[in-house]
Amino acid sequence: MSADGVSTVLGAFQLTFLTIGLMAMLAATIFVQLSPEVGRKRN
Fold first, then answer.
1. Global pTM?
2. Total Cβ atoms within 10 A of residue 20
């Protein structure tokens, strides 16, 4: 593998890691906004 290939794979990994991190932060902000009653089982 050439040096260009290594930098391309590294860049792709970094962008993937960043994207997954941003999606996790977005999901966290959605869950933080939910009220405590949401999703509770009612008997």
1. 0.68
2. 10
